[in-house]
Amino acid sequence: MLAYLFVVLAFASRFLPHPWHFTPVGAALLFFGARASRRQIWFPVAVLALSDVILSKFVYGMGLDLGVLASWAWYAGIVLLGTRLRDHSKPLWIGASALASATSFFLVSNFAVWLGSAMYPRTMSGLVACYAVGIPFYQRDVLGTLLFTAIMFSVPALLKLPRGEGATRGPAAV
Fold first, then answer.
1. Which burial class, exposed, middle or buried, applies to 168 when counting CB atoms under 10 A from its CB (0-12, 13-18, 19+)?
2. Which of 57, 91, 112, 167 has its CB surrounded by the most CB atoms within 10 Å?
3. 34-45: per-residue pLDDT in tens?
4. The domain 2-154: what is its CATH number?
5. HSE-up of residue 19 (Cα within 13 Å, Cβ side)
6. CA nearest to 82, candidates 69, 74, 10, 156
7. pTM across the whole model
8. Residue 173: CA atoms inside 13 Å, Cβ hemisphere, count?
């Protein structure tokens, strides 16, 4: 249930004012992959794709382009990456996955902008310029993804503490 809640919060966050790319999207996708049913992997991809359609058409007045399609593929890829965290739920694996999430979005989305728009020449220098312009967004995405991933993956452990799970039972437990 928590995985679905985080996806809905990620969906909602896209419509709230926020610094560019400082959102819980990557973290919610990783958490969903790690905790939700494999048969429901389509859910976060569909929900976030819906947010892309709404934002593109009704907020920004743009059509769906290569960048949006690349985002949808990225959503699916990050949910699948999250499934690897089912067996590797140590903080190092979670942090590395969060970093891979932000880095892959930077690489995929900027490449799609370079390839699918006329903003940059389709040369190596145009590609480098596209990535250079994206660095401030990447920095915020890394910070947001790491922060939200830490929070989301900590919530289940924090929720278990009041119920006595994982707590010591006094001196005899030492």
1. exposed
2. 112
3. 999 989 999 999
4. 1.10.1760
5. 11
6. 74
7. 0.88
8. 5
**What are the start-end ranges of the E strands in 24-174?**
none
What mean pLDDT comes out for the span 52-57?
A: 94
d(CA 28, CA 24): 6
Collect all residues with Cβ–Cβ distance below 8 Å to 6 and sequence separation of at least 6.
24, 27, 28, 31, 32, 152
Per residue in 110-123, pLDDT (tens digit) is 999 999 999 999 99
Q: Which residue has the tokens 């089912």?
A: 86
Cβ-count burial of 43 within 10 angstroms (0-12 exposed, 13-18 middle, 19+ buried)?
middle
| Calpha distance 21→142 (Å, rounded) | 9
